[in-house]
Amino acid sequence: MSALPIPARARRARLCLAALAALTLSACALQKPANVSNGARLTPATPSTVDLMRLPPPQRKIVAAVYGFRDETGQYKPSPDSSFSTAVTQGAASMLMKALKDSGWYVPVEREGLQSLLTERRVLRAVGEHPQGGGQQGGGQQGQVPNLLPATIILEGGVIAYDSNTRTGGLGAQFLGIGLSTQYSVDQVTVNLRAVDVLSGAILNSVSTTKTIYSYEIHPSYFRFVNYYDLLEVEGGYTHNEPAQLAVKEAIDAAVMHLTVQGIKDNQWRLKNPGDWNDPLIQRYLDAEKDYTLTVTPRQAAGPAGAAPAQGDGHAATL
Question: Which among 41, 143, 144, 163 could bridge 188 via Cys, Cβ 3.0 to 4.6 Å?
């Protein structure tokens, strides 16, 4: 059998090398990314959550009711992803209840599932009235079902805005077949939270917080002719999308923090230790409020004849 000519042998060697390179790259592409199959864990704490947990204790905890904290944006995900899924979480009320509990300033009471609670209380009374049907557990509870805890304030509001691609951009460069390009986009979610006095119906305070959602992509590439006929092409990519639900959670945590600090400032509720007013955490949020009021006209900021803001009194001031 005659040997293959040199060009044929070279072509076969190139094909073998190309096949080997393709198999190697395929094996690399099929590798499972790291840290994607970890076990379930607690939701990461946002910076605002950490601030809530560091708040100085109150003189008395505030009983707060949340009947609903809805998505009022009307925004849906873009069509390639889904035409029916909403852009933001529908569980904002649960996030708000968690933030109230974490702060140590509020006693959140169940109102969103009030009907289920009332039904269960009726069952409990029925078991107490018929001990022979309920066993020993219900027999001693006749007439001992306590009243529900009434709320002092109602917290209202919701996710009021979700703006996609408020900022987009990118940058790329290529030299001698070696290239790198990046793209980014910024979305924005806005939350409103207000405290309503149960007795008077007056709105004690109302705050709005905004959180940006940052996404970016890095795309490196390499193109090179390894010889006169053969082209080597290598591409890669990395994309990071900030979870929208964590952005909503951080905006809600920040709203609870600002609402609490404003209530302390207006004497609607009080610190256990008055000296904690000078706590750096509280002063930092007060400074943020001052920066916000810089856009208000001097007449609106100072009030009548330059008077200082009035201190709250009445029912809300006793909290």
Answer: 163
Instruction: Please tell me the distance from the alpha carbon of residue 133 to that of residue 211, in angstroms, as a whole number.
Output: 55
SS3 sequence, 157-181? EEEEEEEEEEEEEEEEEEECCEEEE
**Separation CA 262–CA 204 (nearest Å):** 9
User: Measured between alpha carbons, how far is 256 from 264 in angstroms, rounded to an integer?
Assistant: 12
Name the packing angle between helices 244-265 and 280-293 (round to 10°). 90
Residue whose C-alpha is closest to residue 191's, from 72, 15, 14: 72
pTM: 0.74
**Which residue is it, tokens 């009374």?**
125
Q: Which residues contact 291 (CB under 8 A, 6 or more apart)?
A: none
Question: What is the per-residue pLDDT for 1?
Answer: 47
